[in-house]
Amino acid sequence: MNPIDIAAWSGNWAWGLPLIVLNTVFHVCGLALISETLVHRLSGSFGRPGFMSQFAIAMSVIALLVAVLHGIEGIIWAVAYRLLGALADNRSAMLYSLSAITSFGHANLFLKPHWQLMGALEALNGMLLFGLTTAFLFAMIQVLWPLGSRKGRD
């Protein structure tokens, strides 16, 4: 392998891995904050009449907050792309980032050749984050549902 290519790949890993760690820690802390805040506030109000609408609203708020977390994480990657000169403008950086982190991949944008591995690393990060989100949403259903179910009131 050409020494220049090795340097390019090393830069991708040197930037990509810390971004994965940063976003994962940020995501887990955000999920914990959402959980602690909402479950604490809702635990006293659930179980009253209108449980299903309360449950739907709570899950909607949780989904919205998690979507905001994912958006912020996309912004973090977009900022890195701009700082590295991998993409020409903020709009392109954000669109590319959201496309990569969601593994959607249909934006007609490409990182400069030197930074292309970072796109794959961002997609890897997205898989981790969406896996955590899926587990979190399932856990929130398991926590909130018993608060208002008939079985939980007896």
Could you characterize the architecture of this molecule?
The protein is mostly helical and 154 residues long. It has one domain (3-39, 54-153). Helix content is 80%, strand content 0%. It is built from five helices and no strands. The protein has helices at 3-42, 51-84, 90-101, 116-148, 150-153. Helix 1 (3-42) runs parallel beside helix 4 (116-148).
A few lines on this structure:
The chain has 154 residues and is mainly α.
Please tell me how large the radius of gyration is. Answer: 20 Å
Per the principal axes of the C-alpha atoms, what is the gross shape?
elongated
Task: Give the number of domains.
Answer: 1
Which band does the percent of strand residues land in? under 5%
- SSE order: HHHHH
Tell me the total number of β-strands: 0
Mean pLDDT across all residues, rounded?
89
Keywords:
0% strand; single chain; 5 helices; mainly alpha; 154 residues; elongated
Topology (elements, then pairings):
Layout lengths: L2 H40 L8 H34 L5 H12 L14 H33 L1 H4 L1
